[in-house]
């Protein structure tokens, strides 16, 4: 884009910006920020909090020449908002306005407005405990109460206290889309709250008469009906995860093709939106709807508050959400589909009333509403704290039980995390970080993954383990093909060709090696003929390079064990020993640590082979508990590689 086009675009955008509620509140916001060290801002989704307030702070030089940081719980939001603000300021992304997410930094010495995930800012705290680069830190989407946001709130309050009275005090802005702001205000010594005057239109809500047993089918009917009966306007459908979003996407596209021939109805322009989608694909939701068609956005709760999609007039809400739930006793995370909170149901409906009156179709009965929790439970109260505790220790917070969390996590979960870190060898008996623990804390990975890489040094397979973790860290490497009537078995050529009896991890390694061995020119073709996403593979390769560098920095040699697979699996066992299970007489599995029952997920290479003992990376709970990304391991490795683990087992 040349300078002139950029300037023209900037002027165009300014007109729209002036109409935003936050723009009208500009002077008030700046005055409050001048006078107070902390400010809480509450405003409807789409009112201009994220895109405008960082610009105001920068223009008024509130950061005194330092950087204005604005944190986001989601990577996609950090990227899309940075792009937008770069456009609004008429600058190239990475100059004045930049972003940083894990494994990707688009900022420079010139950057003064930086959007980053909360996790990234926490990482920066480990390197520079005073965050001296920043003059203003805005914590956005605070109402989501993600683990990293809560951890950041406690950390940043400490930074502010330490910088108070120096020549570089720190200003903090906490931004939230829900009215409940008192807990933030009292956490920051009764900081003032500014409410943006949002303007929203009425949204008419509809319910189903009787409970739907297949809400995917119900969602499809709702979309088709809206398309046939309702006037112009785009549709936003809330579903729980990637798999169902993809399958509804396929159904709707197929249906639209058929219907198109029949004429009369609008073409459906279907776009998908979930966290695992590559950022470039995620950006497609912002493209204008092609004339004569209706945009149908199929999204997870990502579209609840952190992204604003223009043109939405209809919302279809399945009423469910996928949450990561941690079992302190087993130390294992589970993904569980559960009903939304009332506040989420309202946010979802609200998406339909931003530009005019809208309609929200809830795929559940009105009576269900009474049984919903009023608010989302903070993630801190239901998730694995191992990573947080490791980071706290690395930041020099020895007594993690006294860390100022806005809501204290259950003591049991903290103690459990300390035990896990002890079992991993990250903490000594005195509760202090060991040299292994220090190394682990410097990897941008969960403690278990970091430990696997460090253990790989002893096994002589650093390169192999880093490759597998790079593949696991990359979302959706394998393309999903048509699903059979009843099952969800994926058919992936690469997976099948490279399938190894040892399981999914070795298969990941084989696919990675095959791709890495391809000349860059042939990669595209290789990806398409092998049923993998090129972009995901390139991402995995990039993560591999970054993790390799990090591993070498910690003294892990990048050696490969070649065709020997035991070293890789042993290094994984050293990290993921809690994620292991033994086969039972009925063919199901029982976890070694707590005796939870589970079965191997149909997407696994090992679905049909049922080895004696397995290691897995993830548990997914639907009607049953499924283990995903599974390998067959030797039972005797457990005692050898995790001698502490059974001593922390509580039956
Ligand atoms: O943060 P908040 O939800 O309050 O709003 P925002 O993200 O700052 O968005 C303000 C407005 O900018 C929205 O209403 C959109 O109209 C527009 N916007 C956009 O068109 N494209 C984006 N990528 C981001 C924002
Ligand atoms: Mg926002």
Automatic annotation (TrEMBL):
Listed SUPFAM superfamilies: P-loop containing nucleoside triphosphate hydrolases
Alphabetical keyword list: ATP-binding, Helicase, Hydrolase, mRNA processing, Nucleotide-binding
GO molecular function, one term: hydrolase activity
Origin: domain of life: Eukaryota
Domain Helicase ATP-binding span(s) in chain numbering: 30-197
Cellular-component GO terms for this entry: nucleolus
Domain Helicase C-terminal: 202-396
Gene Ontology BP term (one): positive regulation of transcription by RNA polymerase I
EC number: 3.6.4.13
Catalytic activity, reaction form: ATP + H2O = ADP + phosphate + H(+)
Record Pfam families: DEAD, HA2_C, Helicase_C, OB_NTP_bind, WHD_HA2
InterPro entries, alphabetized: AAA+_ATPase (IPR003593), DEAD-box_helicase_OB_fold (IPR011709), DEAD/DEAH_box_helicase_dom (IPR011545), DNA/RNA_helicase_DEAH_CS (IPR002464), HA2_WH (IPR048333), Helicase-assoc_dom (IPR007502), Helicase_ATP-bd (IPR014001), Helicase_C-like (IPR001650)
PROSITE patterns: DEAH_ATP_HELICASE, HELICASE_ATP_BIND_1, HELICASE_CTER
Protein name in UniProt: RNA helicase
Organism of this sequence: Micromonas pusilla (strain CCMP1545) (Picoplanktonic green alga)
